[in-house]
Amino acid sequence: MSDPSSPTPETEPAGEAVQQQARCGLVAIVGRPNVGKSTLLNALVGQKVSITSRKAQTTRHRITGIRTVDDAQFVFVDTPGFQTKHGTALNRTLNRTVQGVLADVDVILFIVEAGRFGLDDAKVLALMQTEAMKHKPVILVANKLDQVHRRAELAPWLQGMQQRHSFAEFVPLSARKDDDVKRLLAIVRPYLPEQPWFYDEEALTDRSERFLASELIREKLFRLTGDELPYTSTVVIDEFKEEGNLRRIAATIIVERDAHKGMVIGDKGERLKRIGTEARTELEKLMDAKVFLELWVKVRSGWADDEERLRTYGYE
Ligand code: GDP
């Protein structure tokens, strides 16, 4: 790994020492609604996402995405309260939750719209201006740069921002531009601690996309059937095909009794349809790909007690 003759990545300024140790850290993306947080997260995370495997360091938080670039692993964590488009006023409890997350991460990306800073932005910034956060690196990401037509006006704005907080970095960019997003990753990289990855690369491959698919369908299944359905019901992925930006998935929900089958299917197939739609929508978001999902329901009475069958279903 530490071959000194290896080429310097384009994103590193020439002459700067290239770190070769593995890096890994938690990254939070915060900002008022509509500044482009989801767009940026999707772009930062790219295609491969897995939320399924966990290590102690990260179990306290919900992981929204992972990106590994060379030897650096970026683990993005959810900050509740910022995802919603409604209700910009963060209440006290939410503030505390958010601050709890922020206190744990290694670096914060504070997203604003380039050239703008309103009351809602100020409220979010205030969350990071506590005593405990004094030394936490906050990177100011000025998004939607493509909408700023007079770039010259950005300099005084950036100066003004500098006075509001001692930001670790200023990064004007557009979340819609791949090169900008790559540059941002390179800027964030040195803020990740030198430590082994939390997730092995294996956890970020198709195999886990397959697992992710079954977990997600299972989650929707139980959420939409309430407590009615016995937990012995399971989901088996019969087919998982990757065709460019498309995932073709066929899955079977296996229940124990005919009555359970009815519960899953619902009136005129409504419930099964909903399980499928919700699972598909979320999978598309997580995998950043189009998903064709085919769902079947089968009755396999007593399967839970049958070891042979369990094996065929992948529960070894
Ligand atoms: P969130 O509420 O902060 O998660 O914001 P979203 O990611 O949902 O983005 C809000 C809107 O801004 C969407 O319509 C995005 O398409 C748009 N948007 C995000 N990033 C950019 C950008 O770099 N340039 C432009 N012009 N629009 C963007």
**What's the name of the CATH homologous superfamily of the largest domain?**
P-loop containing nucleotide triphosphate hydrolases
Quote the average pLDDT: 79
Outline the low-pLDDT stretches: 1-19, 48-59, 83-90, 306-316
Structural class: alpha/beta
Outline type: elongated
Let me know the largest β-sheet.
Answer: 6 strands, mixed
The domain count comes to 2
Q: Into which percent range does the helicity of residues fall?
A: 25-40%
CATH structural fold name of the largest domain: Rossmann fold
Gyration radius over CA? 23 Å
| N-end to C-end Cα span | 35 Å
Per CATH, the class of the largest domain reads Alpha Beta
Proportion in β-strands: 15-25%
Q: How many strand elements?
A: 9
The count of helical stretches stands at: 9
What ligands does this structure carry?
A: guanosine-5'-diphosphate
SSE string: EHEEHEHEHEHHEEHHEH
Biggest sheet: strands side by side, in what order?
2-3-1-4-5-6
Query: So, CATH architecture of the largest domain?
Result: 3-Layer(aba) Sandwich
